[in-house]
Amino acid sequence: MKTIKLTYPHELSREQLPETVAAIGFFDGIHRGHQTVIKQAVTEAKHHNMESAVITFYPHPSVVLKNNHQVKYITPLREKQEILEEMEVDRLYLITFDKELSALSPQDFIDHFIIGLHIKHVVAGFDFSYGHKGKGNMEVIGEHSRGEFSHSIVEKVSLHNEKISSTKIRNLLEIGDVEQANVLLGRQLTTSGIVIEGDKRGRKIGYPTANINYDEDALLPKPGIYAVRVTIGDTTYDGLGSLGINPTFTADRKDLSLEVNILDYHNHLYGEELILEWYKFVRDEEKFDNVEKLIEKIKEDESIIREYFSNLV
Ligand SMILES: Cc1cc2nc3c(=O)[nH]c(=O)nc-3n(C[C@H](O)[C@H](O)[C@H](O)COP(=O)(O)O)c2cc1C
Ligand SMILES: Nc1ncnc2c1ncn2[C@@H]1O[C@H](COP(=O)(O)OP(=O)(O)O)[C@@H](O)[C@H]1O
């Protein structure tokens, strides 16, 4: 998959681009609703012998529109690319969402980023909007098409009568409910990064932990102890995940450390790329009076997590 970053105005010429079927949206999380939109675009593209594309935006529109500079993503760019690659999307157009873009009229947006990118068919969710103040939407997109492309609208995808949404997933992560978040995502929430050095305490207490240098704009679940799986190269292991400040040892630490003790593993990992999948919240972090009490608790965590994975179908 090619990733193509675009700002307004871009210099690409329509004639040199392949005819394309595009799914358009912000798609944070690429949850089951988003997947429906993207799969439909990929299927249509194959059917018509065209290329498939996902057109999305970065950063999140609220950075520009609401001056919100703290936005974190359920799927940071790296995760998004991996998932879209797996879904067999040919191109990812990443449009910079800045003041100029937000000021474009709906017609200018379509002329430039749909017709101008040689898109012949657009797939989007029922609530997608575009152009200044979001005045363009799927009800009026036909009027902006100049007869150059057709479109299809994907209706709301629900679970138990509730719309699957990035907001709902964010709320679940905030309370640590990664199990339910995974149901809405239609896959495990993942966080990836390189293994870096920590305080070298883990091995002394019998639980060495690989510390993961995750993206700073990755949205993580609430701090705590989790059942996780990690993939290193081609192999996946069960593990004890810990996200937090390690209050037994540190008083104030702003960034959260994400660490994993990999079960039945005895190798060096510094510098390795590791993909962590979140499975289940086990407990909140605690501040213990001494290391012995922490070790006792981690032993309990270990048996809970081993038991959890042995029962997972
Ligand atoms: C399963 C598990 C549970 C943990 N629970 C706590 C906890 O409740 N409180 C705490 O202060 N640290 C907890 N930790 C974090 C340890 O303090 C940390 O892994 C240890 O200090 C090693 O840090 P290092 O990798 O930087 O050397 C936990 C770690 C694991 C793997
Ligand atoms: N089962 C394991 N789980 C996690 N890391 C392990 C394991 N066995 C060995 N290691 C290695 O030990 C390191 C963690 O040891 P630790 O004493 O916690 O050091 P640090 O504080 O630098 O993370 C890991 O980064 C990895 O290289």
UniProtKB/TrEMBL annotation:
<keyword id="KW-0285">Flavoprotein</keyword>
<dbReference type="InterPro" id="IPR023465">
    <property type="entry name" value="Riboflavin_kinase_dom_sf"/>
</dbReference>
<dbReference type="Pfam" id="PF01687">
    <property type="entry name" value="Flavokinase"/>
</dbReference>
<comment type="pathway">
    <text>Cofactor biosynthesis; FMN biosynthesis; FMN from riboflavin (ATP route): step 1/1.</text>
</comment>
<dbReference type="InterPro" id="IPR023468">
    <property type="entry name" value="Riboflavin_kinase"/>
</dbReference>
<keyword id="KW-0418">Kinase</keyword>
<dbReference type="GO" id="GO:0003919">
    <property type="term" value="F:FMN adenylyltransferase activity"/>
</dbReference>
<comment type="similarity">
    <text>Belongs to the ribF family.</text>
</comment>
<protein>
    <recommendedName>
        <fullName>Riboflavin biosynthesis protein</fullName>
        <ecNumber>2.7.1.26</ecNumber>
        <ecNumber>2.7.7.2</ecNumber>
    </recommendedName>
</protein>
<keyword id="KW-0547">Nucleotide-binding</keyword>
<keyword id="KW-0511">Multifunctional enzyme</keyword>
<keyword id="KW-0067">ATP-binding</keyword>
<dbReference type="InterPro" id="IPR015864">
    <property type="entry name" value="FAD_synthase"/>
</dbReference>
<dbReference type="InterPro" id="IPR002606">
    <property type="entry name" value="Riboflavin_kinase_bac"/>
</dbReference>
<comment type="pathway">
    <text>Cofactor biosynthesis; FAD biosynthesis; FAD from FMN: step 1/1.</text>
</comment>
<dbReference type="Pfam" id="PF06574">
    <property type="entry name" value="FAD_syn"/>
</dbReference>
<feature type="domain" description="Riboflavin kinase">
    <location>
        <begin position="184"/>
        <end position="310"/>
    </location>
</feature>
<dbReference type="InterPro" id="IPR014729">
    <property type="entry name" value="Rossmann-like_a/b/a_fold"/>
</dbReference>
<keyword id="KW-0808">Transferase</keyword>
<keyword id="KW-0548">Nucleotidyltransferase</keyword>
<keyword id="KW-0274">FAD</keyword>
<dbReference type="GO" id="GO:0008531">
    <property type="term" value="F:riboflavin kinase activity"/>
</dbReference>
<keyword id="KW-0288">FMN</keyword>
<dbReference type="InterPro" id="IPR015865">
    <property type="entry name" value="Riboflavin_kinase_bac/euk"/>
</dbReference>
